[in-house]
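Quick one: structure tokens for this chain, please?
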Amino acid sequence: MTVTLTASVPAAAWAGNRHDKLRHAQQHAARLDAKARQQAAQIAASRRTLVRLDAQANAALAALQRATLDADRARQASDEAQAQLSAARANTDAARALVADTAAGAYRTMASGGQIAATLSLVQSGDPQAFLSGLQVLGQVGKRQGAVVDDLRVAEAQQLRSEHLAAAATARAVATERGATIARQHADTLVAEQQHEVARERQLLAQTRTAASNAHALAHKLQQQIAAARARAEAIRLAQARRVANGGPVATCNGGSVSGYANGQLPVSALCPLWDAPGMMLRSDAAAAFNRMSQAYAAAFGTPMCVTSSYRTYQHQVELYATMPAGYAAVPGTSNHGWGLAVDLCGGVQVDNSPEHLWLLDNAASYSWFHPSWALPGGPGPHEPWHWEYAG
């Protein structure tokens, strides 16, 4: 009996220890599963927030672009009004000088006993004929002096009108610049929130130890689309390289101003080339921001962004408008391509929900680039996932 009892105690202890380990392992696995589910839910919520912030940042940057262009036009109108005011003031000064000279001449004539003095003497002599002759002379002199005074009044009225117009133009320029500043602050705030959410999502993804299940059919379809897009991008790069080798346009980049030029008429000398996109050019500030974004994109995907279209001349806009389906080309002279502020991208970006497209949605706003709302799925314009614009 003693031996049996002694043998049974270790067996029970061993069995209990095994069951305890199994129970602890199951509890630990359950905790890991719960944590993974919690983190997956947090990531999904973060992605929803990020999608909302992407849209808000895009809208804010589009508003900033409009405000910046309005401010540019208002400043130009103010400068023109100031120039007209300066000309009006010069005319007024000249008219005043002429009036002063006329008055001084009349005074000197009177003082020296000239024609006016003699006429006045005749008028005062009491001789009727002399009186009539004197009135005629005074009338002619008065007409000349009256014309000079009328010219002064016209010049003063023009100056007053120019002052009102210049003041109104200056006020509008100040207001539009203030609006652009407010739009910039709003856009910066939204971009900062967006990037904070990007960092939070990355942190959640780094903490997650289990991968969510993928929709394999959709993933396979996306992979095929992306592979085709990348092949097309490579073909485009080769075609661009051949075009440059055959004497295509290569922009110098001196940061020249494009102010005062019409849409599609920007000078090539004021445009800048895009990094590793031969023949592609944008306005200098847009190109600089794009090139920084392309370098970050290359760090993520191993290749610069692929560009199919950038600045478009007015003639090119006319050709596209005549050949593309309705709605897919802006009315010539209205396209943001014509301002050097828009690009069409390839290499996977043109595929909705591709890694390249999602990366741009999450990161483009940091470089003042955005995807306009009209080009989004369900937007008011044609669905163009490849079209992106610079806010300024």
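The chain has two domains: 19-209, 217-392.
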